[in-house]
Amino acid sequence: MVSIRDLSFSYKRKTVFKGLDLNLQPGHIYGLLGRNGTGKSTLLRNIAGFLFPRSGRIDALGFDPRRRQPAFLQQVFLLPEDFYLPPIPISRWIEHTASFYPLFNIDQFYKYTTGFDIPMQGSMQEMSYGQQKKLLISFALAVNSPLLLMDEPTNGLDILSKSQFRKIIAGAVDEKKCILISTHQVKDLENLIDRILVIEEGRILFDQTIDAIAQRLSFTLSFDPEDTARAFYSESSLKGNALVLPNTEGEDSRPDLEMLYKAIILEGEKVNRHFQEPPPAVRP
Amino acid sequence: MLVASHWAEHRKRYLLSLLAVGGLMAVWYGFLVLIDHFGPINLFIQYATYYCGLFLVGCFYASTIFSELGSKSRAIQYLSLPASHLEKLLCGILFGVVFFFIAFTIVFYMVDIPMVSLANRIIASEKQHWPNSFLPIGSVGVLNIWNNGWAPIIDRKYHFFLFAYFAIQSAFLLGSVYFARWSFIKTVVSLVAFWVIFILYVQKGIAEHLPDGWHGHDLVRWSNNTENGALASLVVLPGIMERIFIFLMQYSIPPIFWIITYFRLKEKEV
Q1: What is the distance in angstroms between the CA of the first residue and the CA of the last residue of chain B?
Q2: DSSP classification of residue B179
């Protein structure tokens, strides 16, 4: 669906990507994690065609994004972190914007706005930031574009809305769609994403499915100093040391995304090396 | 679809702006009627009001046509709309050039006709004469922008100001894509700088390449004067070349700027 080869990008003198490779497949919800300023939003805007690579190639749904052809724009929707909604009533905005997207489903839109409890009367400018964001999320999902790019979608959402967001996104994906969510609030993506991408120093440092992570890593609490010594990452807490360990027992462990992220950022090479090793034998 | 979407999003602003333009014109004409009892709102005043308004408002409006591109959030929303760059440019030209020109001209006449009629009634009721004479002040006609008998010769012959307006406005349209912020002011500065360079080139650059004693009258005539100032020889480009030159000046500038705007829009990154 999206193939990025040897992507290099820079803002004037600041290099953001150098030789970045990435493949995105349909039927997945990807979580794009990374520190501030590592280029998460820049990557999304390169895929959507709002920024142009300095070298390398991006193929999204068979299109060259930088050409921004209407057929491409109908199939890719970018939900930016900072967005703009015109100061007009929702109904008028929907009437004039939805017609650009052939797969837009008005029933779905109303279902999502009802789920998010968005007031549908009045001008969009009168809505709070969180309500505007939920409205745009509802629109983005109702567009039914095969590729949906979301930049920090949970910023500005309250706790209930975040939970609703996870529920709606999980229900919106199917085998033809690919959703890429960029965030630094990893907790918000728990139980939602099925593949994790970590971006660091201009390249994809880590790219694994949640299933593979659950199979290869163990997230546990332990007071055992031996466990702590062999952990990729440890963090002390009242209940013991929270550890990210190599999963040698072959038992699936529920990944803690925040711990995983810290382990990758601090011990990325070690973690990757572990994933390259043969998996442990599965217990009968 | 794009035109309907643009109208739905901006109609309130456009209608209020036109109302404000009409109001300002009415205030201006009202002021003239109050201070001048000797033929206020004559044809030249109408002519100057029309073109000053057209240049100022039209260029300012053109500089806002692609103002979405000045802010990252608005630019993403604008560029992500599934329409081609050409369609987006044509929509901008339709609103910024065609619709604006029609709307401004309608608003001008909606204010001009009643105000001229009011001025004529005042002249008729006061039975005024021109100062130091017994000649009565005649009624004033309504300006016909297509038949500008009162205009300076260059405009009477070539509709100079009308073509200049479309040329300059197209530069402001390009400026609205080129400059992310303060596009009106930056375009003004760029045009002034360009004009200064052009004048210097015509006055100095071309003159340096002419033989001794020769100087240029305009872009198609050069002459050599004798020592006592009499005309010794005159070189004039063929009439067809002059006509082609004038035709290009009249009609080619806006399309050139629109084409540049198109490529600039295509290459816009946010």
Answers
A1: 24
A2: -
DSSP SS3 for B236: strand
State the amino acid at position B53 in one-letter form.
Answer: G
Nearest by Cα to A57 from A125, A120, A7: A7
Structural contact between residues A162 and A23, judged by C-beta atoms closer than 8 angstroms: no
Which pair of structure tokens corresponds to residue B61?
Answer: 């409006």
A156 interfacial to chain B (CB closer than 8 Å): no
pLDDT in tens, B49-86: 999 999 999 999 999 999 889 889 999 999 999 999 99
Block residue for tokens 């280029």: A39
Contact A101 B270 (CB under 8 A): no
Inter-chain touch B76–A80, beta carbons under 8 Å: yes
B90 close to A (CB below 8 A): no
The phi and psi torsions of A194 (rounded to 5 degrees) equal -120, 0
Q: Which residue of A has its CA nearest to B80?
A: A73
Angle at A9 (CA atoms; ends A8, A10), nearest 5 degrees: 135
Partners of B71 on chain A (C-beta within 8 Å) are 84
pTM of the entire structure? 0.85
As beta bridge partners, residue A244 has A219, A233
